[in-house]
Amino acid sequence: MTKKGCIILSNKLFALDIGTRSVVGIILTEQDGIYHVADLVIVEHKDRSMIDGQIHNIVSVATVISEIKSMLEKRHGTLNRVSVAAAGRALKTMEGSMTIEIAGKPLFNSEDINRLELAAVQQAQQKLLSTASTADDYYYCVGYSVLHYKLDGNEIGSLIDQAGRSATVEVIATFLPRVVVESLLSALKRAGLEMEALTLEPIAAINVLIPQSMRRLNVALVDIGAGTSDIAITDNNTVVSYGMVPIAGDEITEALSNHFLLDFPVAEVAKRSLSSDETITMSDILGFEQQVPSLEVVSIIKPAIEKLASSIADEIKRLNNSKSPQAVMVVGGGSLTPLLPKELSIRLDLPENRVGIRGLDALSDVTWSEGIVCTPALVTPIGIAIAARRAPIHYMSVTVNEKTIRLFELKEMTVGDALLAANIKARQLYGKPGMGMSITLNGSLMTIPGEHGKSASILLNGSPASTKDFIANGDLITLERGKDGKDASPTIRELIGDIDPIEVNVNGNKYTIVPTIECNGQQVELDTIIHDRDQIVYSHTTKLSDVLSGLDIKTTAPFEVYVNNKRILLAEWSTTFLIGNMPVPADHLLKDGDEVRIKAHTSPTVWEIISALDQSTQSTASITFNGQPVTITNSGSSILLNGQQVDNSSIVHSGDRLTIAETVHRPFLFSDIFLFVDYSLPTTASTSYQLLRNGEPIGFNDPIFSGDALEIKFSS
Question: pTM of the full predicted structure?
């Protein structure tokens, strides 16, 4: 069922769609919410006066506009005001990112995120300015979407209330060059017309195809024209991004022209016939006519169709955060290209019924006059006229820091948009951080950052505002610069903390143990201020041995000797440290108020050391002689002290070396007894005697053993 009706005479609208190849003029009327296409005129450019959506020849374009205006005025009366659209292909898309250090700052809030996003958009704008071929120094930001939030370099879902070292936001932003708008205004003025309203071509198509209730869905709208394919993405109840690929219907026409040697206009006619005719009749540049089945022509141009589909699909994913949308709507003359919807569905991994061509029959509440051919190419011109009535875009003027700024109302404008237009640098939104410093602490290099700067405050008409607050014409915005952070100037105390002295008592004397702190070789206090490149050395040990050494209190080291080159520690002759009655080691950590007693020992003899080591150097025997007990000994070793022969009573000092040379023990003889007893011959004794061992006779040099009973018996 076609939507046709009579011409409604009230509320007449005049709109122009200025495309790369042609200009479409349309007369639209509206009554009670029903729009009627009363008239439509299409005039092709005489030369390449439009390139990539920008007017390159204002005079030529103005001539075409004047021609359309004249034709429509003959049928509808004088036309003075017109609604136009800036071509979606004139939009510039650029990715931007911004990272700020957040260590030590309060938790991230929504306004912090807004300002970070604004800084990222501005960075994208600067990238665009540095790469743009035009000398234009200003772009209108028509929208942006966040690609990623990152915390300390790792992707994160939200930065709200996060704390870390650094926060990053990555955005994709869309810009409209000011020169595009200015050239449109110039062409209209030359044609005797005044701009009534302005919109973007993607917005125009979306306004008539995707109502507000559907924009919660993630949908891509693709307007395929002659030279470019314009893309708009909806999601979360808004248009989130725009884009363009510089190939479209002409790519297919050129493929036909090259293969069949056709003049470009002939190839264009042949391309348009593919969707309706089974056989295509073509005359090449040599005058030969040929008839080719449409299916064969399609197979020949399929590589060009696949290339177009791939380019569009790649850009859709780039604009949609590297994922496919839920559905794709295709409009424009190039949408009728055979196989294109199917190829798009393959490359976007969507079912074929999720990629559809939308023509005039998809427009709700729209009728048109007899003779107007229903084609997807007319969706955008009709959308421009309807958008001019439903959502006209105007200029607004606001004041930013006493400077008047004119904004192009492509959407609901925010304080952030005004700051961008006023060229407020991202660094002006934050106070500068203070200067940091580098120092050396106990030999280790460390960096001390300066104080974080405080965020700038924003006033909208005298009241505090955020960058996301909406603005209206005539608003007054004031940006009060944030407070710069202080340069780093810490004290040694702030660097290493409080180090309290302790008081101890050593052998009845009181001492105060304080930390030793040096800065660049000079003794300093804890409250000394540190400067850049200072070298700081500090120590505060409470270890008993270190404290005694620092107090120059002499103590005997642990008693050690070397016996036959083996190091032996002898605790019974080492210095003993007591706290109260409790012995403590030399590495004991002292506390405030400890009372230390140092107990030293006298040096031992050789015999005491040998006894302590259980290393006897002699043999013994216990016997009785003439009824009296006697112990006899026989030394079996020689003892050297530091290389000198000594006896058992010699004094040994810590660190001395004892050498005990083992010898073979000989048996005790009867004659040895006289070395250990004081025996004199009786004056009355006879000259005849007998030596007895255990009552048995024994010789003077015969061996004796422990336990033997020895005696000398004289004869009478």
Answer: 0.50
